[in-house]
Amino acid sequence: MDAGRSEGYTTMYANRLVADISDGMIKLLYGTRNKIKAFGLIPIPKESVTESRIVNIDAIRSEIQDFLLDKNIKSKQISYVINGQGLVIRNIELPAISEKNTEESVRWELNRNLPEEGKDYYIDYQIAGSTGSGKSRILKTLAVAAPVERIEQYVELTDSLNLKLLSVDIFGNSVARVFGKNKNGKEDNGIGVIYIGAETTRMCIIEKGNLAVEREVPFGIENLVREIMKKKEIGEYEARVYLTEQFGFQEAGDENEVNERLKYLMDNVFSSFQKVIQFHNTGRTRKNLDEIFIIGLGAAIPELDRYLTRTLGMAATAVRDPIHIGRKISYPSDFNFMHYAGTYGMLLRREK
Question: Can you give the pTM of this predicted structure?
């Protein structure tokens, strides 16, 4: 799914440059679906991004240019992953009609729920499946509305880099390409992907290879680090070490106030996601998802996968390596897949 212009043609087997500018970081990948040649995790310069909007294009451009020069990358195109405030994502069911009428119907459904009937939004959709047959056939579509202002910022950034904009897609779609099939190459019936980043946590529900639900809450690793610093009266580095090496769910309780507080904060987020799962499965035979995958910084929290398995009643796996989801990818020895799992999905995207 695009949310902007697309120029030129490329395949999943050609080298691509992908950028995800969100959650306090600029995540950059260069390579193919089978081989990561270069990567970067760069802090977003101060006051360069506000409420998901790029407000200092020059600062972002400078960071990306430095990365390209340092890695000697000669890419002519770039793709972006977008998420955060301002995006409207809807599942819309429509009678099976012509492509033109389907597009018009999707736009009408979204526009009536947008400010000024969507005048300042870019709208796109994809068909995620269908039910029934013949005249009773119903199309299931996933529609996205993105503020024109946000897309224009990416266009301007691309132009300043002297590159061509290949595509823009939402985080949930990118994740769906990575996790939408199981280890046997078959589409999973229902899985969840929980991304725990620095400032945000997101949950995506994927059905039959397509994004069904995406939710985001303003809570991330930085909230936990600040809590540890306050409770234990230690510095930031020591707090991060504590979270990834000393924290334990089994040690939470009255005798360990810090761990109990961290567990409480995370439980609030996970309970909200559990309600999303329950609402999504209302009226369905299946009440739980087949599996949950954890990506992002949160995948490094000790025992988090086991804890979620117990509390949510679903198998959970912290994805620190692509082999955990059956993907064979060649990459540099210092590449950490858990940080880039959502970005990597753009290397799997079929471009027109």
Answer: 0.89
